[in-house]
Amino acid sequence: MKARGLVRHTGRWRTPQEVWLLEQRKNVEAAQREWADRLERLRRDCQDPTRSSVAIASIREIDDPLAVPALSAAVLSEPQLRARNWYLEALGRIGTSDAIASLVAIGLDHADAETRIAAVEQLAVEQPPLATAGFLAALQGPDNARINRAAEALGRFGDASAVLPLIAVLETEHVVVDPGTGGEISATFTPGQGGLSTGGGPTQRRLRVRNEAVLEALVRLTGTNFEWRADAWRAWLASEQNPDGFDPRRS
């Protein structure tokens, strides 16, 4: 095995490249654990009047990409909004793809509305394409609350590329499961037809929802308002993209 250029490492024969990658991963994981411990110590120092100003400044000025997992976890576990904002500021300062992805996730999913807004504001400073892509992807999900949060962020970014995806989710349709009627007669409607059903188990129906934050984002991005008329929005966008009046739908 040695003649083939392999080396013995952690009980297995490996190539030198594999060994190097394993050692690198080990070093990264150790540094990330060290940051978790260091951040915990800094947070405790924030409670000490003699050390708080230095500790707070140290948190806000973190710029090491290896601190991203510790900062992201701290945002989720920290009970105080003020401290969460310190961690968000550090993530914004770091600005790596991992930091941006963490801020997007916080902006979409954190339980506290003010924390979500603070995360989006950090991203809005630089408006990285990765953040825009993350919020655009969230528009395609099944959760209306998440769709509206993504739309609000895209409206803050001011990126015109978000207009068409936003038009697509002005209204979204979802399947709702109704419990069984227990023998009662219920009406069911689908596009073009209706009917009556009697008793039985759960039934499904489609529910169409208007997304208010999507409309607000469109108004903010375009300076116009066609309300819930998606066709009117698309026609306006086509005219903006083709100022000479060419309508691609005619062909």
What does this structure look like?
- The structure is a single chain.
- The protein has helices spanning 16-45, 52-60, 68-77, 81-94, 97-109, 113-126, 129-138, 144-157, 163-168, 212-222, 230-241, and strands at 7-9, 12-14, 171-178, 185-190, 193-198, 203-210.
- The protein is of the alpha+beta class and 251 residues long.
Uncertain residue segments: 185-194, 245-251
The strand count comes to 6
The residue fraction in helices comes out at 55-70%
Number of helices, where a helix is a run of at least 4 consecutive DSSP H or I residues: 11
Give the overall average pLDDT: 87
Secondary-structure content class: alpha+beta
Principal-axis shape equals: extended
**Ends: how far apart?**
67 Å
Please list the strands of the largest sheet in the order they lie side by side: 1-2
| % residues in beta strands | 5-15%
What Rg is obtained from the alpha carbons, in whole angstroms?
A: 26 Å
Helix-strand topology string: EEHHHHHHHHHEEEEHH
Main sheet specs: 2 strands, antiparallel
Question: Main traits of this protein?
Answer:
251 residues; two-stranded antiparallel sheet; 11 helices; 14% strand; disordered C terminus
Write a concise synopsis of the structure shown:
It contains eleven helices and six strands.
List the helices and strands and how they pair.
Elements (H helix, E strand, L loop, with lengths): L6 E3 L2 E3 L1 H30 L6 H9 L7 H10 L3 H14 L2 H13 L3 H14 L2 H10 L5 H14 L5 H6 L2 E8 L6 E6 L2 E6 L4 E8 L1 H11 L7 H12 L10
Antiparallel strand pairs: 1-2, 3-6, 4-5
